[in-house]
Amino acid sequence: MQLAMIGLGKMGGNMSRRLMAGGHQVVGFNRDKKVALALAEEIGLQPETSLKGMVGALKAPRIVWLMIPAGDPVEQLVSELAELLSPADIVVDGGNSNFNDSMRRADLLKAKGIHMLDAGVSGGVWGLEGGYSMMVGGEKGIVEHMRPIFETLAPGPDQGWGHMGPSGAGHYVKMVHNGIEYGLMEAYAEGFEIMRAREDFALNLHQVAEVWRYGSVVRSWLLDLTARALEDDQSLSDIEGWVADSGEGRWTVFEAINQEVPAPIITLALMQRFASRQDDSYAAKLLAAMRNQFGGHAVKKASD
What is the maximum span of the chain, computed from C-alpha positions, in angstroms? Predict the structure, then answer.
């Protein structure tokens, strides 16, 4: 099959490589033209330097896959594509868009006869080799039409991907997936910090991770990556303890509140990421001040 890939960063570039290795034709477009030209030279995709040129290079019905940051970039591109594409063409948003936005954009394109799928993609930089997990929302018939592409990108033809439901369902499931990821990562981080604090045991944390990777009930791909991170430097001396969030953890917490579903682990994991960004916590200062006031407990001065 033939498709256009918009956004040729790490994910989009690697997905293009996997698709071409699977026999598909890829037309590539990137905001930075040099990226598309470089990838064209490396793997042989067809580069285009304008959206109009990209659409013109595709055979109808056209397939356009977006791998770009959520929010305004997707909004702008969908609006532009709505004017360039024709009825029966297909747009796939493979980024981490909010599911509410995906539902709205699908309706916008549907009014013009254009189909839209929302595909939550997981796999990161390892997807090129091992395949990508994909959670797809949209019309069942369009998903079936796209099956050869999903099967090529997935770990196996019938593994790691599936049709989740109507428009928005794919990004909804990916949102919750990322919320769970927050909780898992926080649990590993806390556990390893507890072990590191027991200095008299002098635990080799890389060894612990390697032992847990095989046979343990807490084994996982995240643990595999933890072991890899600890292999050369257990103290992680080159890394600052500042943790970003992509937004999907927040959306998961918002949705838990909207649905009145208790989600304390995911919520606290998100709060811990916020805490990681504070050089000096006012809340912690106030807690210390309160303890001093009601109990005369010692306060550590800033100059200490």
Answer: 77
Note if 186 is an active site residue: no
Q: 257-303 pLDDT, tens per residue?
A: 999 999 999 999 999 999 999 988 888 888 888 888 898 888 888 76
* Exposed/middle/buried for residue 72 (C-beta within 10 Å: 0-12, 13-18, 19+): exposed
Q: Is 174 a catalytic residue?
A: yes
Strand order in the sheet with 90-93: 46-48, 25-29, 2-6, 63-66, 90-93, 115-122, 133-137, 161-165
Distances from the Cα of 145 to the Cαs of 25, 141, 148, in angstroms?
Answer: 16, 6, 8
Residue 142 near residue 29 (C-beta atoms within 8 A): no
β-pair type (90-93, 133-137): unpaired
Catalytic residue among 48, 181, 186, 248: 181
22: nearest Cα among 155, 192, 142, 195: 155
Average pLDDT over residues 206-217: 98
Burial class (CB in 10 A: 0-12, 13-18, 19+), 288: middle
* Cβ atoms of 102 and 137 closer than 8 Å: yes
Out of 112, 129, 151, 174, the active site residue is: 174
Share of residues in the chain with pLDDT > 70 (%):
99
Residue 221 sits at φ, ψ, to 5 deg, of: -65, -35
**CA nearest neighbour of 178 among 117, 236, 98, 101:** 98
Q: Is the pLDDT of residue 304 over 80?
A: no
User: pTM here?
Assistant: 0.93
